[in-house]
Amino acid sequence: MDLGNEMKYLQGLQPVSQYKDKNALAKEILLLVAMGGFAASCLVTPGLAYAAKLFPNITGQENSRLKRQIRSLVRRGLIQEINSKYYLTPEGVLYKNKLIIETFSLPIWDKEQWEGKWHVILFDIPETHRNARNSFRRILQRHNYFEYQKSVYVHPHDYSKEFKKLAKLHDVVAHVNSFSAMALDREPELKNYYNLTFSKHNN
Question: Looking at the structure, do residues 56 and 11 belong to the same domain, yes or no?
Answer without folding.
Answer: yes
